[in-house]
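chain below, 163 aa
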Amino acid sequence: MSFVIREYREEDLPDMIRIWNQVVEDGIAFPQEELLDSEGGKAFFGAQTCCGIAEDPDSGRIAGLYILHPNNVGRCGHISNASYAVERDSRGEHIGEKLVSDSVAKSREYGFRVMQFNAVVASNIHARHLYERLGFVRLGTIPGGFRMKDGHYEDICPYYLEL
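prediction:
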């Protein structure tokens, strides 16, 4: 399948919530522990600067998404942050790369000067390799910065990219 990235529409919300909740349920990448329901999902995605979805234009199937927003406020409001979610059955199809690339372009469009990821789990090697291949710089390691679903702690690696 050939996926394209586009901005989300309200009718995409059920798929976005389903995919987001899969990653939350996996408990190995997102800090969130609470699942989104339809009302919470609409508010959550609506509060972002931008949300992109990965859609197969032939079938209309949505397989992934990203959220983009400021990483901080005020004097640090020029730094963006993003999170990515790909449905379980579509991982490994390079959808993540399309989502990241689109979010970088959108960050530039919205006038952000830097993109920063605060908490990339060290064992998430596929994401880490993708970010590094796309030019993101690792800032270091925060020991035990992420509590996995099974209760053990993993290191996290912040990354940034000058836009």
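The two ends are 30 Å apart (CA to CA). Strands lie at 4-7, 50-55, 62-70, 79-86, 114-121, 137-138, 142-147, 153-162.
thats it, cya
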